[in-house]
Design brief:
The protein is mainly alpha-helical. It has one domain. Helix 1 runs antiparallel to helix 2, helix 1 runs antiparallel to helix 9 and helix 6 packs antiparallel against helix 7.
Length: 213
């Protein structure tokens, strides 16, 4: 029952942050931004199986780093760094649950195409705006989040796959809107897909099984 209550609270608080809470006072706005993530961490904790493996702790640590990234994204590179670290923990967790299949491995082709496309567009946009110093951090982040998606796909776990792809979608809209051109309704799109991504990743916790040796 508590899991359903938490799910409802996450949805309500997320909607309040996106649609209701004003930008000022800033600290209140930021509080409502991180509250859904804190509840997602609690939700994930409650879903932990009785027999816990390293992959479960890695996911929880990743969620924590992303929560810090939520708050610090107001200082873009700082927030980007925390999110990148969070993705590295997700990658490590998914690698422990790797289940090879040539069909799933084929997802590397569209992901590589996505990385190449986004890297070119972002490089052009950052050079044009004179923000050359962001090129390496942004491209590195694109590579890491795409790797996170690939490793999630290779787990064969639907919640993990959905969460990773939603995360890629959210951050792609954020980057496009911030550096290339305005995206209509970008704010709601970014945050809805982001909260959904983290909720899905947390929901994968009871289903993530370590690969057999």
């Amino acid at each position: 029952m508590i899991k359903y209550v938490l799910t409802a609270l996450i949805a309500v608080l997320g909607a309040l942050y996106i649609y209701v809470i004003p930008s000022d006072p800033h600290n209140v706005k930021m509080l409502f931004k991180v509250l859904p993530m804190l509840l997602i961490i609690v939700y994930g904790w409650l879903l932990l199986p009785s027999k816990r493996g390293i992959q479960h702790w890695l996911i929880l640590i990743g969620l924590l780093f992303c929560t810090i990234g939520d708050y610090t994204l107001q200082w873009f590179v700082v927030g980007l760094t925390f999110f990148l670290i969070g993705h590295l923990f997700y990658i490590a967790a998914f690698l422990f649950c790797w289940k090879f299949s040539k069909w799933r491995a084929g997802s590397l082709i569209p992901l590589a195409a996505f990385v190449a496309f986004m890297a070119m567009r972002m490089t052009d946009a950052l050079q044009t705006s004179g923000e050359d110093g962001l090129i390496i951090p942004v491209i590195l982040y694109i590579l890491v989040i795409s790797t996170m998606a690939f490793t999630a796909i290779m787990t064969r776990q639907p919640w993990a796959i959905a969460g990773s792809l939603l995360f890629v979608a959210s951050d792609s809209v954020l980057a496009w809107n911030k550096f290339i051109e305005d995206v209509a309704y970008s704010g709601p799109i970014i945050m809805i897909t982001y909260y959904a991504a983290q909720y899905c990743i947390a929901s994968s916790l009871p289903h993530l099984k370590r690969r057999e040796k």
